[in-house]
Amino acid sequence: MKVLFDVGHPKDINVFKDVIYGLQSKGHEIQIFARAKENTRKMLDDLKMDYHLCPYYSNIGGKALGILVNDFRLYKFAKKVKPDIFVSPGSPYSAHVSRLLGKSHIAFPDTEIAGIVMKLTFPFTDKIYTSTSFYLDLGPKQERFEGYYELAYLHPDYFKPDVSVLEKYGLEECNYIVVRLSALSSHHDIGAHGFSFESESELGAFIAKFEKYARIVIFSETDQWSLIEKYSLDMDPADLHHILYFAKMYIGEGATMASESAVLGVPSIYVSNTRRGYLNELESKYDLVYTIEHKEKALIKAELLLEDSGLNRKWREKSYYLYNNSIDVVAFIMDAIEKK
User: Fold this and answer.
1) What contacts 45, CB < 8 A, 6 or more positions away?
2) pLDDT over 70 for what percent of the chain?
3) Mean pLDDT of 66-95
């Protein structure tokens, strides 16, 4: 079978990589259509995967144009490689082109607030697989599973943390706090706000509150202020999850990194006025992460947690409970593709 994976975000590559390896080991032919977002190209190169790259548009006008441009690019690519099935996290490009070519498209979305994209995608999608945490009812096409997409690449069966990675960056286990600053430029970020720092001095004051507990490491999508560079790491993307695993805490505007940290058993705070079903459930069911709208309240919560000397041990134990209550997400996705 020929399977075309359509990926638009580094997380998509992480979710599907072991699925791709598994399908290839069973003789299936894989093609990848990817957007040039963040470090997508480097990740695919490091994984030694062949791919076809198309543009990523960061502003609203560009995204509207991108529907037409990338639909056309994918159509040309698909006509050449002739896939039997399209697989994506919920891509309108795959939805449209698969319908034009009379092929199946199955989607694995995790973001309920991507309203415009869902309206452009799901009417042309054959099957939609979501976590039980997904709070929207998508009708008869939807099938739910017990787990989270992060488990496809961060479950202990698929991820082995390497403490030696810390030496490359002068970090010590459980002695640094990861702060994530987002550009908030994705389609699902419309109307979203997070830390909302108004000045470099305000960011500096916020960081100073945490420095009494641990070193600060900033991962940022923006270089708005020089202070950001001071706390940033010149990091190999392949080391990200090792760095997250050994962190004392995560606090930031990135929903993906918040859920990844939580699944790894790291105390996590997502600072945003938006909600995600998977983060809601990781909070209500497992008490691994907290979504807090205002940075002042997030700071209060963080300091309360950091005063607990047993904090990191407790979070590791919670993550084990999560693993024991979830399915093998990689096996589930492989089965969904093969049975279609």
Assistant:
1) none
2) 94
3) 95
* Closest among 153, 151, 116 to 132, alpha carbons compared: 151
Instruction: For tokens 């543009």, name the residue.
Output: 55
Residue 132 has pLDDT above 50, yes or no: yes
Segment 99-114 mean pLDDT? 94
Give the largest CA-CA distance in the chain. 59
Q: What Cα–Cα distance (Å) separates residue 192 from each residue in 23, 66, 202, 272?
A: 37, 21, 20, 7
Domains of the chain are: 2-146+327-339 (3.40.50.2000), 163-324 (3.40.50.2000)
Residue 58 is predicted with a pLDDT of 62
